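Weekly puzzle thread! Below is a chain. First person to post its structure in token form gets bragging rights.
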Amino acid sequence: MTTPSTQSKLRPILLTVLLLGGFMIFMLMYVKPSSQWLYEPVKSVVCPDQVTPTTELVTTNTTKVQKEEKKTILLVWLVPFGQQNDLNFCKSQFNMDYCIMTTDKNMYSKADGLLFHHRDIRGDLSNLPKAQRPPHQKWIWMNMESPSHSGNFNGLDDMFNLTLNYRRDADIPARYGYLVKKENEKKFELPNKNKLICWIVSNYNPNHARTKYFNELRQHIEISTFGRGFGRYVSDGDYANIVSSCKFYLSFENSVHTDYITEKLYRPLSLGTVPVVLGPSRQNYEYFVPRDAFIHTNDFKSPKELADYLHVLEKNETLYMRYFDWKQFYDVKGTSFWIEHACRACEHLRTDNRYNAFRSLRSWYWG
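Winning reply:
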């Protein structure tokens, strides 16, 4: 039983409870609470100097995510034959915005890969980097010459990660040319011809197999010769006019090695002249171009037999024109040495993240 004094003490408390209860009832009846904070995304800002190539930026004004694409850096350590080229070639010709090509050796520690042209490597390797190789970096050995014309010196094994070469089994295959399917089939028009067979040579070496074959072949058929080897210099502009005016061209390689098929094949093909090839096997050539696009010396028992066949084609226009049937469907594309091959290397570095090591370069290339 409560006493008057107890009741007087409880009266203020009860009054307070009643007032608070009434206030809560009023709020629930007339004021609608917001629950937006339950689903509003938390926004954050990253300072520009903290941004890395993989950082996502989210601004307070938009939910759009912006990414900075990581660039691939290729350092050309030894410029092939000192031939300077447009280092923006990959971007301008192939739309490769992500490739940074440079010859600045101060970029050594940052480069994803280094490109070394074999013909410019000194025999004692003294012009190769002295600093320790960064763990992420790949060294690319580039050589478009045949083994017969490439110095085989000590120290090349266990040095490179990748090979860039004309061989099909190279890590980065690089051809002297290739055929591409035409978008629209178009009838081939034969250029005007006023010469039967032509040969343009700068390096005339009597010990080469091609020279020995030529000397016997010319005893049976007329051959028009040009180039420094014959004391008749030919400029790049003159080359196209000469070759297109010949029915046949001697596409003789300076040495015979698997897959070593150079511009000596592709340039006559592009100019509407039938190449007579001396190099690797017919089967090897047919990997790159149609079998009826060229004539192979191996198909004849002797240079005289080849000469007799060329005389037949000279007089039979129908048989001769069959060597151009393929041109209705394909175009010939040449490659830009050395810069286009470097673009291939940059693309490889970007798309293939596997670790590679080439343990025995000398055994692979020189056997």
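Puzzle host: Confirmed. Bonus trivia for everyone else. The longest helix spans residues 4-30.
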